[in-house]
Amino acid sequence: MATLTIRQLDDEVYDRLKQRARANKRSLEAEARQLLDERTRNLPAIVEDLLDFHDRMVAKHGFLPDSTELIGEMRRDG
Q: pTM higher than 0.85, yes or no?
């Protein structure tokens, strides 16, 4: 496996990555690996993951109702 060193990383970027790692219960290094892996996958794999996620959410929660009419009512009444 390769090793990557990133110099002059902006402090805010580092802090956001650290927060993301904490939220995902991963080390900073593991979070960076995960993020790089996700962002460098090819588009068909990303689309496949999204479709799989969609299918799992529909199976679990069903289709959500169309909110267009509700939003229109809220804007008219607001």
A: no
